[in-house]
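ok so I'm stuck.
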Amino acid sequence: MKYSQLIGISAVLAIAAVCFLPWVYVPVANITVTGFNANGTDFGKPGLLLVILGGINVIFFLTPKIWAKRTNVFIGAVTLAWAIKNYIIISSCYEGDCPVKKIGIYLQLLFAIIVLLMTFFPKIKLPVEKA
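replied:
not stuck anymore, here's the structure
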């Protein structure tokens, strides 16, 4: 794909922006959880690792080496795994109290999938072997 690197970088930036959106609302405790603000819960900052991994993805998207593109696939898979973990843990019911899922929890998962898909289509010129 011609624009896979640009789409991947845009998806990483979108993940960083989604970390500021509400992910879930816990009505019992009147808490809104975002990627960087989970006060009143034991979640910590679930979006912080997404942003760190996204920064590594951007570096590898911009590096025109084959090893960087291969490593980027692995980092993209870890990013998606962390996004799935966030979705499962943060949106799960605890002691009968179920949080209300907001748009941010779905978007972080969607953009992590896009990042991983764009790592499969690197833009790199391979050396031509002379026969």
